[in-house]
Amino acid sequence: MHVAVRVRRAARSTIDNLQSTIAPSLMPRDLFAQPLFSPKLIKARFPAQPIPEAHQQAIAQWALALKGGLGQVKEEAIRTSFLSLFFVNVLGYKFLGGHDGGVWTLDLETRASTGSVDACLGTFIHGQQQIIAPFELKGPRTSNLEALMQGRHKSPVQQAREYANDLPGSQFVLVSNCDEIRLYALGYGRAVYESWTAAELLDPARYASFVGLLGADNLLSNATQDLLKANALAERDITQALYKDYKTLRQELILGLHHLNPGIHRAGGAFPKAD
């Protein structure tokens, strides 16, 4: 018992030290970017919970390694390690050859009409596929996912969206440089997305939203898509309520001005009728 306690305390100390080292590296957000989901909705649907210790330590070690030599490694060299940690261990996807035999949910080098996609999330059986999200991967040296790739005249984000348009059934698009992970949705602009960095996933609230939106159970069951639809309806209701308040306020303002200026009539054009 005493040995187990000492091990847990040592692990906790290691995680705390890693977090204190990594904390300053949080990535600034694009000033023009907008969240795909309402932060209020995400907070209510996926409240912060303690991060599993194994996940916390593995993510902290990855984030720390990115500040060292791993940050200079090419995408091909760390792709499998990155996907194994974040998408298999944390989010629950499965590579080909797992325990379910001929069914897997994380496919590599998926063919599309415009080329080969680095990875895809969906349900795959030999000879069949139901793709939910194509995934464009770059290495840590690609710090700007919006920058044009050399020789291609398009950015990683543009490349991923082209793949999604070529793959029937795609609902979302994923782009990452093995540090920042972005989630886009088809039908929304390039400036609308959710984003997490490895360092941010050490925060319980950010970890909860990451697992809640991208976890295999939710993404593959269309729960994430359903939440996006609910989010759109909520935003529409808010817009309609704001317009109703604006219309009421405008009418009250016009009537108030007319009351203060009884010699001026609306018929004369000074106070136009409210729409």
- Helix-strand pattern: HHHHEEEHEEEHHH
What's the structural domain tally? 2
Query: Major sheet: size, sense and barrel closure?
Result: 6 strands, mixed
Number of strands: 6
Number of helices: 8
Helix proportion? 40-55%
Return residue spans where pLDDT drops below 50 for at least 5 consecutive residues: 24-28
pLDDT averaged residue by residue: 84
Strand order of the largest sheet: 1-2-3-4-5-6
Q: Could you tell me the strand content as a percent range?
A: 15-25%
Structural class: alpha+beta
- What form results from the Cα inertia axes? globular
Query: End-to-end span in angstroms?
Result: 74 Å
Rg, nearest Å: 24 Å
What does this entry look like structurally?
- The chain is an alpha+beta fold and 275 residues long.
- The chain folds into two domains: 220 residues, no CATH class; 39 residues.
- Helix content is 44%, strand content 16%.
- It is built from eight helices and six strands.
- The chain has a six-stranded mixed β-sheet, sandwiched between helices.
- Strand 5 and strand 6 form a beta hairpin.
- It is globular and about 85 Å long.
- The protein starts with a helix and ends in a 15-residue tail after the last helix.
- About 2% of the residues have low confidence.
